[in-house]
Structure formats: structure tokens, C-alpha cells
């Protein structure tokens, strides 16, 4: 029997006599006591186990927490270092951008300023508020004659949509404070993935380069001018010798003197071309238009080239239609235009070919056309044909004599006097040069020198 029940029976039935009708009842109670005792023990054990497990979990959790805390500390440290690195990279990039000698501006695809460096700030007298403004609000671009240049030409081109950077070697930038700076521009697209995000443009101040160029041109001008005096003396004395002024000369001596004369003439032509090119570059050549008979000027140029026409057996034709009696033009410069275009046509046309000069009066002015059936200009070299000193490959092979200055001079003269020049050409078929002068004739241009 359970001890608690025994104690209760002893208390209430001290004589130990249990009435038989209670025996069954007491035995039920005894079993209940025993079961409750077992349940209690079970509960206590379960509680003990649960608390043990809880303790262990707590311990594990605490450990985990410590581990996580350590990891967080390590990560924070790492992040901090990265932030410092990034700030350093940023500072370096900014330092590089701001130490650049060139002005740098980044634009979005609509032409609004995204970013500019320190040099841009000083070069264009910018304020920080220009970010977000359109480029046209902060500067304008001009060519050397102060004609505005559109952004398509100078900055953008096809840039945001193309792979290639564009380069403009000489553009004048006019800042909002009126400062006019000669700059070379390099513009490249800003492409993220496949998407154009705008473009970035570098402006290099080329004032010093232009001054060096000017000094070089002045040197060429001076040197060519000085060289003309001895060449003129050689020419004079050679022709005197050839004419027998120095006494009789033998046939051999005549051949040698004729060779000296030819070379000297070539040298004079070269020196004159150099002098003209330098006068054009220095901007000192004058255009003095007056009413002239253009047919007469053209005919004089043709007559002077007659020897070459005959030598090369060229079939020369003239076609003059509705040419005005007089046109306002500089006679000397007009002759230079005819001489260059016609002598080129003769020079670059094989023996027996045809050259023609057409002059026609149009409602827009005067149109000059010089065409030939010569070697033509290769397609891939046509864009460079008016460039100073440029000679096409086929021309170098067929005609070794040439300076590459003639067309440069002609184009400068035509354009400075308000006209236009262009050409059409097909290799081995022929070339046609077109010059047009406005009805008003050539524009006057003040200058201290003429062209030779
Ligand atoms: P050059 O002294 O070489 O003739 P120009 O400046 O007069 O110099 O011409 C430049 C180049 O243009 C020539 O070298 C030649 O390649 C090309 N050219 C000019 N005119 C003609 C023409 N009528 N036919 C073919 N090529 C020409």
C-alpha cells in the first residue's frame, strides 16, 4: 500500500481494523495513489528532460549569436575598407579629371551637360549650375571665319550612335563671357551595353599650336620670298646666255642651258606656290575685284598653256555660252583659277585625250567647267584632293612633277571670294571641275599681299 494511504488509515483507524466493505474502496484509492505517483515522476522527468534540452538549445543559440556577431563585425570592417577604397578611387578619378590640361564635358543624348571637369570650368567660365543645361546655353562653336558650326558637325556627328570618335582639328569655341578660344575637339559616344547614353567631349586649347603654325608659315613665306631673288637672277642670266648675249654657245651648251632654264622655271613655280599657300594661311592675300572680261582672261590662260597642249596632242575645246560682257572679279586671281584647273586637266590626260573649258552665265552667276578624259581621281582619295600638298597615287605615278598646292590655292581663292568649287571624277575615265561665282562677282578682301 502507498505510504500516504497507510498514514491516513493509521490516523483515522488507529486500531488497524478496516471494515470489509471499505477494503475494495481502499484498494482503488491505493491504485490511484500509485498511478498519480507514477504520473508525477513521469512529468518531473519530462520536465527535467525538456529543461535540459532548452538549456542546450539556449547554449547553441548563444554560440550562434556570438558567431553571427563576429561575422557582422568582420563584414562591417570589410565594407568599411571597401568604402574607403572606393572613396580613394573616386578621389583619384576626380584628381585625374581635374588635373587634365583639356576641358572635358559629358553630355546626355539630348545635349544636356552631365559632368564637366575643372579645366572646362575655367576654360568656359562655367558655374556648377550648368549641369543639366543644354550645351548651346553655355557655349557656341564657330569656324575661323566666325560662321556658326552646328553641333552635328562639330560635336555629335553620328557619335552617340556610332562606334567611332570624331575629331575636329580646329574649331573656335565662344564662351558665354565672350572669350573666343581655338580648340581641337575629340568627341566619343558614351555607350552602356548597347545603349547610347550621350557623349563625352574633350576640348584642347590649341592657341599655342596655332602660334607655332603661324611662325612656321611666316618662315616659309619669308624663305620663299628670299629665294625668288636669286632664282630671278638665274632665269635672267640663263636666257641672256641662250640668246647669245654672252657670246656664241655650242649646241651642247644650249642643251645644258635649256635644262637649267627648265629646272629653274620649276623651282620658280614651286616657290611661288609655297609663297601663295603661306599668304593664304597667314590671311594676308588681297582680293581686288573690278569689272573684267572673263573670256579674255580665260583665253590668255589657254594661250600660255598652248605649248603643253601641243606637246601632249590634246584636243582642246572651248564652249562659251551667255557669258556676261564683264564680271566683277580679281583678274589676277581669276587667271590663277584657270591656269591651275586647265594645266591639271592637260597634265593628267594621256596624249591624244580631250580637255574642254566651258563658261556660262546663269541666273545665279558665272559657271566655269574644266573637263578632261584623263586618269581621273581614285574614289578613296577624292576627299583629300583639296588638302595642302596632297597628290593622288595615280597622279604621282603618271606625272612626277607637281606640288599638291594648286587645288588648295584655287579652293581658298574661290571660297574666300564667295564662290564654290567641286568636282566629279572617275578613275581612268576623266574629271570635271566646276567653279561658280555669284552674280555680284568676287567679294573684296583686304590684304597686304597679292598671289603670284
Ligand atoms: P599637283 O601639283 O600635284 O597637280 P594640285 O593641287 O593641282 O597639285 O592637284 C592635287 C592633286 O589632285 C593632283 O596631284 C592629282 O592627284 C589630282 N588632280 C587634280 N586635277 C586632276 C585632274 N584633272 N585629273 C586627275 N587628277 C587630278
General description of the model:
By secondary structure, this protein is α+β, with helices and mostly antiparallel strands. It has 4 domains: 91 residues; 103 residues, Beta-Lactamase, CATH 3.30.450.20; 73 residues, Orthogonal Bundle (Helix Hairpins); 149 residues, Histidine kinase-like ATPase, C-terminal domain (Heat Shock Protein 90). 49% of the residues lie in helices and 21% in strands. The chain has 11 helices and 13 strands. The longest helix is centred in the N-terminal third of the chain and has 80 residues. The chain starts with a helix and ends in a 14-residue tail after the last strand. The chain binds adenosine-5'-diphosphate. Adenosine-5'-diphosphate binds next to helix 9 and helix 11.
Topology of helices and strands:
Layout: H1 3-12, H2 20-99, E1 103-107, E2 113-116, H3 118-123, E3 139-142, H4 151-156, E4 166-175, E5 180-192, E6 195-205, H5 207-242, H6 251-282, E7 290-292, H7 294-304, H8 306-311, E8 315-321, E9 327-329, H9 331-347, E10 354-362, E11 365-372, H10 393-398, H11 406-416, E12 420-426, E13 430-438
Parallel strand pairs: 8-10
Antiparallel strand pairs: 1-2, 1-6, 3-4, 4-5, 5-6, 7-9, 10-11, 11-13, 12-13
Helix pairs in contact: 5-6, 6-11, 7-9, 9-11
The structure holds adenosine-5'-diphosphate.
Adenosine-5'-diphosphate binds near residues 344, 372, 375, 395 and 403.
Amino acid at each position: 500500500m502507498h505510504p500516504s494511504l497507510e498514514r491516513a488509515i493509521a490516523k483515522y483507524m488507529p486500531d488497524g481494523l478496516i471494515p470489509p466493505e471499505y477494503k475494495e474502496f481502499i484498494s482503488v484509492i491505493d491504485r490511484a495513489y500509485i498511478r498519480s505517483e507514477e504520473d508525477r515522476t513521469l512529468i518531473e522527468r519530462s520536465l527535467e528532460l525538456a529543461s535540459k534540452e532548452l538549456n542546450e538549445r539556449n547554449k547553441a543559440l548563444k554560440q550562434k549569436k556570438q558567431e553571427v556577431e563576429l561575422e557582422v563585425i568582420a563584414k562591417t570592417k570589410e565594407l568599411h575598407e571597401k568604402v574607403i577604397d572606393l572613396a580613394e578611387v573616386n578621389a583619384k578619378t576626380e584628381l585625374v579629371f581635374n588635373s587634365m590640361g583639356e576641358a572635358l564635358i559629358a553630355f546626355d543624348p539630348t545635349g544636356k551637360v552631365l559632368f564637366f571637369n575643372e579645366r572646362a570650368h575655367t576654360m568656359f567660365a562655367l558655374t556648377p549650375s550648368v549641369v543639366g543645361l543644354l550645351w548651346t546655353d553655355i557655349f557656341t562653336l564657330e569656324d575661323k571665319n566666325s560662321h556658326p558650326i552646328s553641333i552635328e558637325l562639330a560635336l555629335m556627328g553620328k557619335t552617340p550612335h556610332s562606334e567611332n570618335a570624331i575629331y575636329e582639328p580646329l574649331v573656335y569655341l565662344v564662351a558665354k563671357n565672350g572669350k573666343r578660344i581655338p580648340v581641337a575637339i575629340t568627341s566619343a559616344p558614351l555607350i552602356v551595353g548597347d545603349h547610347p547614353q550621350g557623349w563625352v567631349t574633350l576640348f584642347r586649347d590649341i592657341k599655342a599650336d596655332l602660334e607655332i603654325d603661324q611662325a612656321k608659315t611666316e618662315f616659309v613665306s619669308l624663305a620663299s620670298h628670299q629665294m625668288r631673288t636669286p632664282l630671278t637672277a638665274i632665269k635672267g642670266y640663263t636666257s641672256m646666255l641662250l640668246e647669245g648675249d654672252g657670246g656664241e654657245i655650242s649646241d651642247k651648251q644650249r642643251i645644258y642651258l635649256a635644262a637649267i632654264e627648265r629646272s629653274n622655271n620649276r623651282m620658280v613655280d614651286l616657290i611661288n606656290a609655297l609663297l601663295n599657300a603661306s599668304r593664304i594661311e597667314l590671311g594676308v592675300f588681297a582680293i581686288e575685284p573690278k569689272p573684267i572680261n572673263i573670256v579674255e582672261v580665260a583665253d590668255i590662260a589657254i594661250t600660255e598653256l598652248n605649248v603643253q597642249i601641243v606637246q601632249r596632242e590634246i584636243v582642246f575645246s572651248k564652249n562659251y555660252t551667255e557669258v556676261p560682257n564683264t564680271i566683277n572679279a580679281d583678274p589676277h586671281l581669276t587667271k590663277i583659277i584657270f591656269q591651275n584647273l586647265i594645266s591639271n586637266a592637260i597634265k593628267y590626260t594621256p596624249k591624244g585625250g580631250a580637255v574642254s573649258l566651258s563658261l556660262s552665265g546663269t541666273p545665279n552667276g558665272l559657271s566655269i567647267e574644266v573637263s578632261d578624259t584623263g586618269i581621273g581621281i581614285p574614289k578613296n582619295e577624292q576627299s583629300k584632293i583639296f588638302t595642302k600638298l596632297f597628290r593622288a597615287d595615280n597622279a604621282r605615278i603618271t606625272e612626277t612633277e607637281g606640288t599638291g598646292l594648286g587645288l588648295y590655292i584655287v579652293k581658298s581663292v574661290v571660297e574666300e571670294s564667295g564662290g564654290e568649287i567641286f568636282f566629279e571624277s572617275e578613275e581612268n575615265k576623266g574629271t570635271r571641275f566646276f567653279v561658280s561665282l555669284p552674280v555680284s562677282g568676287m567679294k573684296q578682301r583686304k590684304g597686304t599681299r597679292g598671289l603670284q
